[in-house]
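name: query_chain
kind: protein
chains: 1
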Amino acid sequence: MKSACFKPYLFQALKRSSTPLNIQQSTLSYKSIIRNYSVSSNNLHNRYNSLSSSSSHNSVFRNLSKQQPQSQSQTQFNFRKFSTFRVQLNEFKKIEESIPKPKTKLKGHYIGFGLFGLLIIGLTASEDFRHRVVSAFAIVERVGVVTVASIKCFYHYGKTLNGKYYSEEEYQSELSKCHKKCALITLKALECNGGIYIKLGQHVSAMTYLLPIEWTDTMIPLQNRCPESDIEDIKKMFEKDTGLKFEEYFEEIDPVPIGVASLAQVHIAKLRENGEKVAVKFQHPSLMEFVPLDIFLTRNVFEWMKKIFPDYSLTWLGDELQESIYVELDFMNEAVNAQKTAEYFKNYKKLTALKVPKVYEARKRILVMEFISGSRLDDLNYLEEHNISRSEVSSCLSNIFNNMIFTPGVGVHCDPHGGNLAIRYIDPSKSDNNHNFEIILYDHGLYRNIPNDMRVNYAKFWLALIDKDQESMRKYGKAFACITDEQFPLLAASITGRDFEHAMNDVTSVRNNDEIDKMASSLLDDNVILDLMKLLATVPRIVLLILKTNDLTRHLDESLHNPLGQERTFFIMATYCAKTVYIEDCKENDIKYNRWSFNWIIGGVKAWWRYQSRNIQLTTYDLLFTINNIRTKYLFN
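structure:
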């Protein structure tokens, strides 16, 4: 220890000492005492021990006297000097004992070894503790993946958007590279975290009407490439949720799933009770544990994006995900929706050829259904092998989804992508729908009901498009989508899937490749993308579902290469619009006039005539387009 640490203690102790010390006479001064003491405490102890090693004071005297003859006065002085030094040493011992000693600290590696040992014991002895530790590491990993990917994307976009370019072509080229780079970064992060991040990526891949093609194309693999849960984890979840042994319920089960989605996976199994082959939908066991965190992270990323790039707001996507995910995770809701949809469409089999698998048993995370297999709707080879008419398939699809949109109380399937639809051949002699095929609709986890006012205004909007009545188009478009006059052309283009010119003036014409290329190039314009994002942040969430459904039917029509043209599906939708408006006119007539009064009869006749006139118009259009398409097909063949 340094002497500076002890000086205050030394002086205070010496001042309090009862032993008188004459500094001038003593051989040791205060300074020499402090200096000698500061050499080290061990040195003082050694000196004290050496001086006190003799048996008594007299022996010390004798040793001193043996050296040389001394006078009595000198002997007395030496004795006093020794006595004084001994007193000082005793004082120093007291001082040393009174000095606060630093607390002994455990070495860091001892603490580390101890904690590590406790961790090993906990992991070995307690399954719950082991699960909590694994979950903690997983949470840290998920947060890290999202944070790193977000920072990288923000950096690249900030660098690109704020860069200096010599031409518009150079800017567009760099922006396209940035889109692709950030899309790949995001894809890797979504695949790493899985769960609802996969679902988010699937939403992005379907937003071809909004996002750059680099983003939508990059996310396409997520439609069919989802992380698979281990069958042992699924067995544990089943036994925990049902209280039954896995082997007691299933006679056998294929450990390899026939389909893996973002929220669940489906296995083929055989029931022990009756030996029936079933499809069992299991929610990913670890999914629910991380959903609140994933929702929080997703919303925050979109909030950060809005703050950093105010013009590129996608907060509505986070809101939509949060609103729907907890409903989808409860398979009891899916069972109710499936049974309700099957019951309703059994009266429309000839129009839709729809088949909904039966539900045998439903729990929150487990759904046991009828096993029905099929091929993808866009598998043209399968359609040709079984002599299935592509035009009939297209018409049935249009009837299915337009019936959902325009019929009150039915509800609209909220996830209408190609993976949730299939087609299977059936023997015409055994068919009860006048077709040689059935369209299978899976995944009924989320349905939405369209408010009646929005449904009617939407129908009137489409009829105004057919009539090329721009004033009525604006009126009803603003009414159902809650938009401004400036946003109307963009809304018309988004709903119809046409460019601005055709959406406003000729929506019934055939959409060719030149128009598609023109629409794709328009999405490269920053102003168009910004306007689209503002539009989607403004419109009600249910309108986004309508846009998504329209986009699906349009995409499937193009994939099927419908020989009667896409106009046929357009006229089918217009028929539903006309019926919706007619029903609304009848309701208004009932409210306005007393039943069976003269005005009530006149109003009913007018509504009926408008409806029939519209049907005649649509039938005529349909016939003319059919003849024209057939003529064109034979002329070019």
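note: The chain has 27 helices and eleven strands.
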